[in-house]
């Protein structure tokens, strides 16, 4: 935890509380005079060292539905990802721990979530997509699926264009087709997040 705190401070964040256990996390949150910009928690925390950290995050979101939360995991556990990312509202993120070592990406994820966005580790996205049940996602082309994966990672159109070596207008067309195929209305201001949640819902076990 000390290393994470040091990294957060190095990239310009102020840590207003820290907890070693899941109950302490909830207590620390309750003791704050104002809600933090973001909560970062591990899936596994004492006392049970199973999904205690995730459970604490879910309980906090029950009390404060719009509290941005980033959950870190050592392993790819799609059940944990779905439980967190299919919450009805609020900014969330789910990253594998090795993503922290890519400081620039990690900083970008923090900014995106704190600003109200959703960021999902690309490895988690790929796993969920591969396990998805038949549905709207089947209508996406391979390129549109690639774009959706990067959207889930919180990437802007410009960043997606750079990664896939496409023009900005081409990415815009792919994104537009994704919205259309997934039935997302042009008046929905949060369509990028809704598109991400569509595949998460589709990948749920019946």
Automatic annotation (TrEMBL):
Keywords: DNA-binding, Phosphoprotein, Transcription, Transcription regulation. InterPro entries: CheY-like_superfamily, NreC/VraR/RcsB-like_REC, Sig_transdc_resp-reg_C-effctor, Sig_transdc_resp-reg_receiver, Tscrpt_reg_LuxR_C, WalR-like, WH-like_DNA-bd_sf. Gene3D superfamilies: 3.40.50.2300, Winged helix-like DNA-binding domain superfamily/Winged helix DNA-binding domain. The modification 4-aspartylphosphate is found at residue 42. Pfam families: GerE, Response_reg. GO terms for molecular function: DNA binding. Coiled coil: none annotated. Residues 133-203 form the HTH luxR-type domain. It comes from the Bacteria. GO terms for biological process: phosphorelay signal transduction system; regulation of DNA-templated transcription. Residues 1-112 form the Response regulatory domain. This is Transcriptional regulatory protein DegU. It comes from Microbacterium azadirachtae. The gene is degU_6.
């Amino acid at each position: 935890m000390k290393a994470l705190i040091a990294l957060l401070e190095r990239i310009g964040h102020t840590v207003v509380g820290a907890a070693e256990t899941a109950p302490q996390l909830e207590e620390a949150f309750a003791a704050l005079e104002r809600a933090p910009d973001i909560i970062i928690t591990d899936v596994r925390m004492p006392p049970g060292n199973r999904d205690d950290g995730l459970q604490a995050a879910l309980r906090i979101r029950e009390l404060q539905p719009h509290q941005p939360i980033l959950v870190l995991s050592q392993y790819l556990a799609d059940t944990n990802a779905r439980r967190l990312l299919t919450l009805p509202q609020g900014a969330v993120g789910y990253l594998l721990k090795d993503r922290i070592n890519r400081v620039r990406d990690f900083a970008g994820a923090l900014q995106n979530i704190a600003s109200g966005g959703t960021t999902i580790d690309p490895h988690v996205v790929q796993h969920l997509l591969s396990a998805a049940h038949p549905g709207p996602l089947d209508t996406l082309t391979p390129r549109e699926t690639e774009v959706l994966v990067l959207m889930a990672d919180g990437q802007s159109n410009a960043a997606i264009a750079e990664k896939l070596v496409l023009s900005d207008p081409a990415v815009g067309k792919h994104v537009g087709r994704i919205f259309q195929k997934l039935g997302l209305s042009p008046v929905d201001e949060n369509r990028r997040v809704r598109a991400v949640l569509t595949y998460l819902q589709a990948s749920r076990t019946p």
